[in-house]
Each structure stands twice: as structure tokens, then as C-alpha cells.
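One chain shown below:
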Amino acid sequence: NGLEEAFMVNHMAPFILSAMLFPLLRANAPARIINVNAGLYVFGRFDLNRTPMGADFSPLRTYMNTKLCNVLFTRRFARAIQDSGVTINANHPGVIRTGLGESGLSGRIIHRTIKRFWKSPEAGAAAPVWLATDPQLENTNGLFFDLKQERPYAANARNEILIDSLYEYSWIESNLSDFYI
């Protein structure tokens, strides 16, 4: 449908999965949705007319922008599902040793130099699993966690008009009006 790939992976896929699973999660509440995010969202910008189509594309910029979209969605979906027995939160699990960002000469050099200091995928799973299972967090909804520490949302994630615009846009683009929450 012409949407940029990272926008689809980092925003639309979690949006669609959450929307479609929500009726089942609500029927089996309590339940939790954890959106794995990145602390780099704080540098993201979202333009409804450019970001979804990749008109403002560059690898790092697009990553930050689409992670911001995921955070905006997390905040808005949390409002929509409040009091349903289902919660949603965003989590930055730390910097994980994956293949992300290894393309190009500079990416390969950076990865060879510093990736040994990054967490293994197994260690990176600790914070999201904690968010999904800790009984003390059962009613925690709509928050951002850096590892296991709650953090306030950055200014770019507090624009309510932008949050609502992206939410409506996502429902339209996903063709999931039957699931609208």
C-alpha cells in the first residue's frame, strides 16, 4: 500500500497485532501488551504526510521516527483500553547485539568496535519479560520503561493532536474498522 518498510515494522505491525488480539486479550484478562521500543524515540519526529511513505527517509532518522510512532500508539491505545483488564506499555530493553545497523562501512566498523559491550538477545529479553509478568505491574498502563525504570515521555511524545492523528490514520490504513477501539 505504499507505506515505508520501517514504518510498517515498527509501528503498523504492533498496531495491527494489538488491535486484532485485543478482543481475545480482553476476554482473558488480565493481559499485557509490551511494545519493545528504543530510547532513540526521543530524537524522532513524525510528519503524517511524510513519515508513513518514507518521504523523510534516512536509516537512523527513520528508525527514530518510527519508534516515536510506536510510543505515540502505546500512549493512545492505553487510553482506549483503560479499565478493560488489558494494559499496554513501551520498553527500551537496552542496546542489544543484533544485525540492526550493520550495513555500510561505518555500520560494520561501529559494530565490530563496540558490539561486544552490548547485551545479548537473552539479556535484552529480561526487561520486557519483567514488564509482562511482574504482579506489581498488573495495572501499569501507558508508560515507558528504560530497562526496568519508568521514564517520563519525552516532549515529542506528548503532543495529543499528533497522538490522535496517528491513531486515526493507523485505523484507516489498517482497514481494521471492525476492531476499532
Q: What stands out?
A: The helical segments are 5-27, 59-80, 104-114, 121-124, 126-133, 160-174. The chain has one domain: 5-176.
